[in-house]
Amino acid sequence: MIARTTRLSLARQVRLKLDPRSGKQVLLYPEKGLELNDTGARVAALCLAPRSVGEIVDRLVAAADGGVTPAQIEAEVLAFLRALEDRGLLVVHP
Amino acid sequence: MTTALRPYTLIAELTYRCPLACGYCSNPLELARHDAELSTDDWARVFRQAAALGVLQLNLTGGEPLVRPDLEALVAAARASDLYVNLITSGIPADAERLARLQAAGLDSLQLSVQDTDPRGAAWIAGRDDMEAKLATAAATRALGLPLTLNVVLHRGNIGRVADFVALAERLGAARLELANTQYLGWALANRDALLPSRAAVEEARRLALEARERLRGKMEVLFVRPDYYADRPRACMDGWARRYLVVTPDGVALPCHQAGEIAALAGSWENVRDRALGDIWSAGAGFRAFRGEDWMPAPCRTCDERKTDFGGCRCQAFALLGDAAATDPACALAPRHDLVVAARASADAAPAPAPLRLRRFRPVA
Q: How far lies B132's CA from each of B90, B162, B328, in Å?
């Protein structure tokens, strides 16, 4: 289970790219694509290199412009990362 | 509304040549009737046009794509258009050096077909057994760090070996295992009595696949596709006609699916990427527009709530079974001619096992 201390990055098979048609970031993996919302896009970009979940959350909290609490951001990040993990799109580093 | 549709996936059938002769092949029955294969430059242009149209995923398939000596150049061209490049292969003839060159050219993922874990079963369905070569291809794929999918087409001859396929995929370190029942069109329809499994066998296979999916969650993705002959509702074929997928045949004909070229009423409707830009064919081609959206739907589809999820099922199946591509897919229990599917199940149950197969016409690879 992914927790704040987990270090992870996108699996090798996953490609993050801008979909020129929709203007949204998408994650591509074998035969599938996942369109990302703004938070997802920022988290995925941070997962291009190994990082701890805590660091990802802290970065998003620092960049947030009010209206959401750090706890809400953390919950959203964890839910997104767990969804990626379910699809086998993350590598967990020791 | 339909003009805003974009394809997400291009299925590039690079060649009909193949070392295997599978009795369920999705290639046309009349393999000889086709023109010369597209050139490297033709395909590169198609990839650019596809990317401009919104395509994100490219499936390089066939026949056997590895028999194209320019496959490395095709992969590089696809990556230059920023497509996610999946190679769908029998693994023959592959070697570690060639796979390394394909990876260097930009290959993203490899899907390896496995016909059977039992050599006699493989020889029955494909005309030969190549497990050793396939294992070598899988090992080389993993050694390169390329994500590996095992593609298994299930039928009466191998559906009892789902547990073996799962164990093999685990042993090979596959990221995905696709256990897809045969779709009874083309060669598979010609061989239906020999291939269609019993309902009990389908349900047992499904149970094992779902169990493996739970056990392997996060490690390996396990997909199971039921045969539509045993579902109450039709499958959402290609996620709807000319809605998300584009197929280009080896000789350049653009189609909404592998089988659409067989529909007699649309025989004059298909256009070639040699003559017209892919985007124009996609949006304006008569064949693409024929069953796009819902206007074509007969009763009971046109008022059925499920038309938004199954898109009216498979047009090619309606044509293959009824001679009318605009009819309700007989796989649907609500279809006026669902009796045809019920009768096919009974006929398959009565057929001997293993029944003789009509293997697809062999075409030399060279």
A: 12, 19, 44
B86 to chain A: which residues are within 8 Å by CB? 30-31
Q: B130: how many CB neighbours lie within 10 A of its CB?
A: 22
Q: How far apart are alpha carbons B256 and B279 in whole angstroms?
A: 13
Place of tokens 């256009």: B271
Residues 6+ apart with CB under 8 A from A8: A2, A47, A50, A51, A53, A81, A90, A91, A92, A93
Say whether A21 and B109 touch across the interface (CB within 8 A): no
pLDDT of B350:
83
Q: Which residue of A has its CA nearest to B53?
A: A21
Q: Phi/psi zone of residue B103: left (φ > 0), alpha (ψ -120 to 50 degrees), beta?
A: alpha
In this structure, are residues B323 and B317 in contact, taking their beta carbons and an 8 Å threshold? no
**Residues A31, B8: C-beta atoms closer than 8 Å:** no
DSSP B266: G
Residue B356 has pLDDT above 90, yes or no: no
Q: Any idea which residue has 């279809």 for tokens?
A: B335
DSSP string, B63-126: S-GGG-TTHHHHHHHHHHTT-EEEEEE--TT--HHHHHHHHHHT--EEEEE---SSHHHHHHHH
Could you tell me the strand order of the sheet in which A15-18 lies? A15-18, A25-29, A32-35
Q: What is the pLDDT of residues A65-81, one digit of tens each?
A: 878 999 999 999 999 99
Q: What is the pLDDT of residue B118?
A: 95
Indicate the pTM of the whole model.
0.94
Query: Rounded CA gap, B256 and B289, in Å?
Result: 10
> HSE on the CB side for A56, CA within 13 Å?
31
Q: CB A19 to CB B54 under 8 A?
A: yes
